[in-house]
Amino acid sequence: MKKLMSATALMALMAGGALAQQTVRMGTEGAYPPYNFINDNGQVDGFERELGDELCKRAELTCEWVTTDWDSIIPNLQSGNYDTIIAGMNINEERSKVISFTQNYTPPAPSAYVALSADADIEGGVIAAQVNTIQSGYIASSDATLLEFATPDETVAAVRNGEADAVFADKDYLVPIVNESNGQLVIVSDDVTLGGGVGMGLRQSDTELREKFDAAITSMKEDGTLNPLIIKWFGEDADVF
Amino acid sequence: MFEFCADPKSLEGFQWFACYLTSGKHMNMYWAFGTVLLLLAVTAPIAMLFGFFGAMAARSPFFALRLIGKGYTGMVRGVPDIVFFLFFVIALDQGIEYIMHLIRCPEWTEPVRNGLEFRVCPQAKVPLGNSAQWIHQFYGFMLAVLTFALVFGAFAANVLYGAMQAVPRAQLETAEAYGLSHAQVFRRVLVPQMWVYALPGLSNLWLILIKATPLLFLLGVQDIVYWARELGGAKTQAFDYPHPDWRLYYFLFLLVFYLGFTRVSEIVLNRISARLSKGQATAAGEAMRKAGI
Q1: Looking at domain A23-107+197-234, what is its CATH homologous superfamily?
Q2: What tens digit of pLDDT does each residue of A3-14 get?
Q3: How near does any CA of chain B get to the CA of A138, in Å?
Q4: N or C: which end of chain A has fewer CB within 10 A?
């Protein structure tokens, strides 16, 4: 009886919550600083955390943060484990076939090669990239040998221990790592710009939610609060709108 | 945790490590040890229960029950664990939500399956989209327990089935000759004697179960292997405690943990084995009788 009562109380509590603000679950990877990472308190942190919280405030939504493996981030969205992907995901044609994107909240960002020496063979050598990224797709269609890893951290580790000749990833992610490597790692050759900038991914049937976030991003672009946020997390040299 | 941890970047040596190892993220890892141990503690008895009923069904004189028992063990044993983990959990989760959808939203007209998307009405989400994070985590944990129990239950069923067949026929016949009913023979003669035959197989399963816990991360539960990878990875200045790639040390720690845990299990299992052999009509029981233990 007691159990039944507490169960009913719990149900009532949940039903009561449904009447309040809509709760949106934000799915991210939590392993891609400075876009998103898990800080030392165990909380999701980074550019997208700050941006996402602001967007939710503007769209009057309650947001919960969830982390998931990068590899299964799209399938988990589709099966409804969370409602948005906000994980440094570039907008491209292939992804747009399966999910829908908001407008981009960062300009198309350059990708860069990083290696142990400036004369590394990036055209025909072994290049590490994270699985299912625009960078891994780019390497796969080039002459270089692609070596894929589940997490971005492992791609850099592969260069350090000589498994790969170079790593190819978003420049924003690589620059802090290169700067702190005491000269061990260097950026090789010119940047390559891929994709259409980073946007939030949503289920294709969730048009209403997409419009809400789209409007919130537009308002941040218009009142000039987005650019300072980009500079705060990606440095003075970052591309802004 | 400590007062001197307020400004991590200024710390050095021992103090740095003291703060580093007590950061919120590390606390999450320590909790994950609890999660893994809890999973084992909850899963093992449930898997035994599944195994016991599976074995009973497989030995049943009724064809339908036998089919269920044999079908269960055959299905699960024939499919790789990892496939089962990926498929079964998604199927179960979506199955539950679909049933809830039919109950709570009868007038919903949009298709539930839309291409690759699975979309039920918001009221049918399990757990509800707006419920607290711990409810989501608890639900994920329970799915994990059920999946582990089903997989390991199937193996246990086969072990127990073999153990039931291994009890000497003469023992059962004697019991029947004393006029015990079928159920009484099962309960008082067969079950007490079968454990000694089942134990080697069950102890194998227990050790495999311990080592299978890293599969938890596939189910969205953040286990110790996930945290070791996350904490060990190189950290830039964006973090409070920057450090190079330390995964080796974290995984070394896990190695020690798993080895220690399996060793303790072995010691306990050996004791149980000695206890069960006492007075049994087996070689081990006979050796104990001669030694006068």
Answers
A1: Periplasmic binding protein-like II (3.40.190.10)
A2: 544 544 444 444
A3: 25
A4: N
